[in-house]
Amino acid sequence: MLRYTVKRLLQLSVALLGLSLLLFAWFKALPGGPENRLLPENATDRQREALRAALGLDEPVWTQYGEFLGRIVRLDFGSSLSSGRPIATELAERLPATVELSLAAMLIAVGLGIPLGYLAAKRRGTWIDFGTVSGSLLGTCIPIFFLAAMLKVVFAQELGWLPTTFRLTAGADFTEVTGLRVFDGIITGEFDIAWDAVKHLILPAIALSSIPLAVIVRITRASVLDVVGEDYVRTADAKGLKPSTVRGRHVMRNAMLPIATIIGLLLGSLFAGAVLTESVFAFGGIGSFVYQATTERDYPALMGFILVIAVFYVVINLLVDLSYGLLDPRVRVRK
Amino acid sequence: MTTAKIEKLDRLIEATATARDAKTGSLWRQSIRRMRHSPMALTGAIIVGLFVLVAVVGPWVAPYDPTAQTWGREVFLNQNIFPGPRPENWFGLDHLGRDMFSRMIVGARQTLLVGVVATFIGFIAGAFIGGVAAAAGTFGGRWGERVEAVIMRAVDVALAIPMLLLALSVAALLGPSLRTVMIAVGVAQIPIFARLLRGSMLAQAHSDYVLAAIAIGVPKGRIVVSHILPNSLGPVIVQATLVLATAIIEAAALSYLGLGNPDPGSAEWGTMLADAQRFLSGAPQLAIYPAVGIIVTALGFTLLGEAMRESLDPRLRRQE
Which segments constitute the ABC transmembrane type-1 domain (chain A) (predicted)? Predict the structure, then answer.
């Protein structure tokens, strides 16, 4: 296990190094270059040269790459071209909003997805199965930004049941602890704030949960179908165990392995969906920041985000691979 | 999503590789026979058929020019007044006074084009990478194995990055245009195809007919190109069907992020949907038509692809 971990860690650092090289090349190849973005159009050549020197753009490429790596390691992604503030600060400040939104979306996806997937597998081939599977396929086919916008128009603007934008009602007086508003509201005893935050979360979380929900339903269905056909399930049934025991101990416990894996991995992919959802609801998380960076061609900000997400992803993948051994005794024995 | 994605891809490979040994009829004929009774496959096939039909004949049957504007006479942008459905314009007019029905049926072709070109880019580049890796790993000796390992490591890292981000980075490089969207979405699909074809080719590499070809001295290059490759394409084709759906949706998302076609005159569903977001509260129909178009089409391709995948999976068949 230790050897395996060390090997994976080595592979991880090589992969990250490759990724940083790729990102550097990407950044260098961007059209226009940063000096054109910072200077007015009528700047003279001498002004351009001066700025290039100031930004270190006149140095050899390898020196630039070295500095680039050094800055990344120190989490210095430079300043956002649109706000002028350090990108690392911007990302850190907005992280809690996105984390809260992602957790809420995952809660919906898991809470609905696993029972629905189980039901579909149990009723395989019936119209319940067809309906659930089609519904989950439909979930992956709706563009998130459209779903988010329609939810907003119908439930917030037309019916007025829920707020349209932001994380709290404007002017709300709240105590900041972790930045997760619902959690903060509960631990500080400001339950009205927590409830307000929940109301602001519902629509964006539903929109964001559409794809994870669909994926979890299908994985659960496939996983349960796999397990239900196993000999030990038939044996358990034949022994006369209660159906609920068979379901809990024999079917779901084994079927949970791939489901647990995918839940961990989906958390990472939610960040991409958050870009689209948050922009619709002006949620103020990382997603909104990236949406703005994309539309305004704020490349340093975009790069910082891509780098953070990529590292996040690679690390989660590593953790998932390592956790297989913990989750599944069979994998442990094989290694 | 790497591990889950990889598992899914591996399973698809395994499915087609095993099913080939079945006694009765070819793999595809068997799976078509099974799919005939599947409501999923039928629904998918009908939707895809209709969509392709509209895409092909659309421009000839559209009642109006999709770019012709009747600006100012009936449409009042600042007051959010857009004529809705009526006998002469079945779907009403858009914010520039263009006939929505004509734009929808003309736009089908562009939308199909975006999906097909993006999938094609991913397919060709991914198949090339995966094919080279598999060929090197099988016939290249020790060095070949190293080449394969390096290629597949890189593919795994690329597989780990969310597709939208990959597409976003490519789109930032190329500037906003419909071509950008196609390339960006296509590039994001490369790792999936690469991994799939490599796995599928490796599964074929140890079969009897390859051994026979080696024994009678067929050159290695020819074994790969004319024996292994054609027999490995099954899972890749299934995946291409599924990717077509994703490509259409991702293309719409890129348009929404402002990286799509900057020409407002062009009729393409993704661009139309992104444009219509501005008028959502006053005239939701402008967004709903292209959205329904995209959703139904993507669903059609997905249903067809999933039905194909399921009909090829021997593990699920066993339980019937």
Answer: 95-324
CB-based contacts of B223, cutoff 8 Å, min separation 6: B139, B210, B213, B214
Show Cβ contacts of residue B151 under 8 Å, excluding neighbours closer than 6 positions. Answer: B129, B132, B133, B136, B194
What amino acid is encoded at A319 in this protein? L
Query: Would you state the structure tokens that stand for residue A59, as one six-digit string?
Result: 């140095």
Residue with tokens 């857009």: B82
With both helix axes pointing from N to C terminus, report the angle between B141-160 and A299-327 in degrees, rounded to the nearest 10: 110
C-alpha B306/C-alpha B300 separation (Å) is: 10
- CA dist B205 and B197 (Å) reads 12
Helix (H, G, I), strand (E, B) or coil at A79: strand
Q: Distance (Å, rounded) from C-alpha A143 to C-alpha A280? A: 13
- Name the residue among B200, B199, B198, B227 with its Cα closest to residue B211: B227
Report pLDDT digits (tens) over A158-203: 887 887 777 777 667 777 777 777 777 777 777 777 777 888 888 8
Distance from CA of B255 to the nearest CA of A (A): 11
What is the token pair recorded at B55?
């895409």
What is residue A86's three-state secondary structure? strand
Cβ count near A264 (within 10 Å): 17
B154 to chain A, minimum CA–CA distance in Å? 7
CA nearest to B304, candidates A135, A134, A226, A225: A134
CB distance from B299 to chain A under 8 Å? yes
CA distance B109 to A128: 35
Dist. CA A163–CA A4, nearest whole Å: 50
Give dist(CA A16, CA A27) in Å, integer: 16
Q: What is the CA radius of gyration of chain A?
A: 24
pTM for the full predicted model: 0.79
Interface of A with B in 23-82 (CB under 8 A): 26, 29-31
Percentage of chain B beyond pLDDT 90 is 6
- Contact call for residues A153 and A270 (beta carbons, < 8 A): no
Interface confidence, given as ipTM, is 0.78
Q: What is the DSSP letter of A84?
A: -
Looking up tokens 């602890």 gives A177
CA–CA separation, B126 and A123 (whole Å): 37
Residues of chain A found within 8 Å of residue B172, distances taken between Cβ atoms: 30, 294, 297, 299, 302
pLDDT in tens, B181-193: 888 889 888 988 8
Mean of the pLDDT values across residues B10-17?
Answer: 68
